[in-house]
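Appendix C reproduces, verbatim, an entry submitted by the partner laboratory led by Prof. M.T., so that reviewers can inspect both the input and the predicted structure.
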Amino acid sequence: MLLFVPSLLTSLLAPNFAATYGLYIPQQTLLAHMHFFLKAIIVGTSWILAYFAMKNLPITIVGPIRASSPFWTLIGAVIIFNEQFTALQWIGIVVTLTSYYAFALVGKKEGIHFSTNKWVYMIILATIIGAISGLYDKYLLVRYDRLAVQAWFSVYLVVFYLPILIFLWYPARQKHTPFQWRYAIFFIGLFLILADYAYFYALSYSDSLIGVIASLRRGSVVISFFVGAMIFKDKNLRSKKYVLAGILLGVLLIYLGS
C-alpha cells in the first residue's frame, strides 16, 4: 500500500505531474470503491487460506495444487464471458485434472491424505477463490483504470486485514505467531506489486483472454517446485516431478488451444 500512497496523493494534488510520469490514478466513484473493496476481500481470504496451508504442507504439494487454478478460471470464463473451449483445451483440462489427482496419491506417501487433511482443503479453497479473483479482475479492468484497481485494492487490503490483526492475531501473538521482521517481507510485497502490475497491464487489453493469462501465470509452479527441492528438501521429488510435468503439459495445451 505504501508504494501507492505517493501516486494517489500526487494524482489528487498535481494530476498533470503524475500523468507525465505515467503515475496518474483517476478519481473513482463510490460504486468503484465498493468494487475495489470486494476485490480486497476476495484476495485477502484466498491469501489467508493459502498461507495457513503453505505453513503446514510441503511446498511441492502446495505449488502444483495452486497451479490448477487456470482450470477453474477457464470454467468461469466459459460461463461468465462466453469463452469457448477448443479440442486442445479440453485435452489440457483432462491432463491437468489427472495430474491433480496424481498429486493426491503422491501426497499419501508423505502421510498427507487429501480426503481428510484440512490444510489440503484450505489450499484447494484458496485456489478456487483465486480463480474467482481472476475472473473478477477481468470484470474490473473492462470498467476501470488498471492503476486505480491495483492502487485502491492494495489500500483496501490493509483495511481488510487490520481488524484481523487487532482482534485475532495481536492478543495471542506471543503464544502462536510472534512477529519477526525479515527483509523477505519487504521483497515479497515488492514482487507482488510488480507481478500484479504486469498482470493488470496484460488484462487491460480489450482482446485479452483471462483463461490464457491465468494459465501462463500459474507457470510459476516451476519456481516453487525447485525451491522446495533445493532449499526445503521436500520428499518424493522423483514422483512429484512427473506429476509436475503433467500439470505443465496441461497448462501448455490449454494455452496452445487458445
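The longest helix spans residues 30-56. Additional entries are available on request from the coordinating office.
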